[in-house]
Specification:
CATH topology of the largest domain: Aspartate Aminotransferase, domain 2
CATH class of the largest domain: Alpha Beta
Bound molecules: pyridoxal-5'-phosphate
Radius of gyration: 24 Å
Length: about 475
């Protein structure tokens, strides 16, 4: 005869039954340890023991300071966000220190960040001159005053005329200058969501958004995303049926990591879904101007419902060091202006004036023309070097952006390779950086932002060994 179960076993069974019966669904938080002790009349040790066993079975997951969350209904297959129909329920985000380490190394847009990167291109020389001129022209007392919080009119006017060339008519009053695109995304999420809300993101998708969600206590639902055509609209539709999503962050033009370009039909479907489910669409437009053959119109150009917030920046097309971006906040614009004021007060006046003049003089257009040609050459060079590896690797062929996404054979762990490569001064961008649920461990993003000089070619040549592909 089987002896009576221990208290922790009985509690574990009870919790499993409740989860199976749907009392708590994937993504839900279990009652606190203290509440379970009180409700079940058990000690803290017993409750913790039961929770640890459920955690070991993969049914719940512990989040520091947040509690235990259901990850899957018992007997479910483990979540695989790559395929529609197997989407993980919304979860809080916890970004590990390792991710921060990788991000501190410029998120590896360069395999060899310590190697010399050559002379600045003529466009940057011209930009620096324009900024210098603007700085010298500042009136004596101006250092004692902030610029207007919305941003300098001359820059907003330039950005508005650039938008018009991409099929989007926007008044300069509907643009607000930010400290880069990350800041713009932060303002967009702050304006549209409250703690605990669910945000749909691309998977794989930009790790910076995951970090913002973590900071704002938002829950993420990862929507399967093709590295070629972007977020899967059928999967998004399913997600919206199942969970109350507040906002969706998408990058229709050359999304990181693979450079996906969202087709027109998908863009229209997205807006249709957003209307039906009343969600905010946060468009990350940062890579659009890198398009080798064409600069796609923004999703915002199709927005008849004033629910697409556009976020952009000069970081990928001109300079990361400017820390200048912009946002057009749709129906949330007033609140976003307020949040800009609260979080940054104002942006540097002379930097904005210098960039505006650089744009007005045609310097930016000339820089982009040159840069697009260079990026295309560097992409081609990278693809041809990758093909020479002669290992079964799937790779994207982006028409814009700064990186190629590789899917390596199952079992290759690019996070392990990251630590090994670091010892040789090589910085990888492992696939798991692009998901909050531990997917894409065999993915790798390789940037072609830099010229393939001998040192970088040699570093790339080391990868098959570091990844244990040969
Ligand atoms: C998709 C995407 N969005 C936003 C950012 C942040 O841009 P910024 O430097 O303008 O803050 C990055 C930077 O890597 C990015 O890749």
């Amino acid at each position: 005869m089987r002896k009576a179960p221990y208290h922790y076993e009985a509690l574990e069974t009870w919790l499993l039954e409740q989860i199976r019966a749907g009392r708590w669904r994937p993504g839900d938080r279990l009652p606190s340890i203290r509440a379970l002790c009180a409700q079940q009349g058990r000690s803290k040790v017993t409750v913790l023991h039961a929770l640890h066993r459920l955690e070991a079975r993969g049914v719940v997951e512990a989040y520091p300071k947040a509690g235990y969350f259901v990850t899957t209904t018992p007997d479910d297959a483990p979540p695989r966000p790559q395929a529609a129909g197997q989407i993980s329920a919304p979860l809080p985000v916890t970004v590990s220190d390792l991710f921060l380490d990788i991000m501190r190394r410029s998120a590896a847009f360069d395999l060899l960040p310590d190697a010399p990167s050559g002379e600045p291109p003529p466009g940057i020389v011209a930009l620096n001159r324009a900024i210098g001129r603007a700085l010298r022209r500042q009136r004596d007392g101006q250092f004692q005053y902030y610029d207007e919080p919305m941003g300098h009119l001359s820059l907003r006017e330039q950005l508005a005329s650039q938008a018009a060339r991409r099929g989007w008519r926007v008044s300069p009053d509907r643009l607000c200058i930010t400290s880069g695109c990350q800041h713009a995304l932060f303002l967009a999420l702050m304006a549209t969501c409250r703690a605990g809300d669910v945000v749909a993101v691309e998977s794989p998708g930009f790790y910076g958004v995951l970090q913002l969600l973590e900071q704002l206590d938002l829950r993420v639902v990862e929507v399967p995303t093709s590295p070629e055509t972007g977020m899967d609209m059928a999967a998004l539709a399913e997600v919206l049926e199942r969970w109350p999503v507040r906002a969706c962050v998408v990058s229709p033009a050359f999304a990181t990591p693979g450079g996906a370009l969202m087709p027109d039909a998908a863009r229209r479907q997205l807006l249709d879904l957003a209307g039906r489910h009343d969600l905010a669409v946060i468009e990350d437009d940062i890579y659009a101007e890198t398009g080798f053959a064409q600069v796609p119109d923004p999703l915002k150009a199709l927005d008849r419902d004033d629910r697409v917030i556009l976020c952009g920046s000069f970081s990928k097309s001109l300079s990361r060091d400017l820390r200048l971006g912009w946002i057009s906040g749709a129906r949330w614009h007033r609140q976003i202006l307020h949040l800009k004021l609260v979080t940054q007060l104002a942006s540097s006046r002379y930097l904005q004036q210098g960039v505006a003049e650089f744009m007005e003089d045609g310097g930016y257009a000339a820089h982009l023309r040159r840069q697009r040609g260079l990026l295309r050459e560097r992409r081609d060079r990278l693809l041809s070097m990758l093909r020479d590896w002669r290992v079964p690797v799937r790779m994207t062929q982006p028409q814009g952006g700064l990186a190629v996404w590789l899917e390596l054979p199952e079992g290759v762990d690019t996070l392990t390779a990251y630590s090994k490569a670091l010892q040789e001064g090589i910085v990888l961008t492992p696939g798991s950086l692009f998901s909050a649920v531990g997917a894409f461990s065999n993915g790798l993003r390789i940037s072609f932002a830099h010229a393939w000089d001998e040192e970088r070619r040699t570093a790339l040549g080391r990868l098959p060994a570091l990844l244990e592909l040969v």
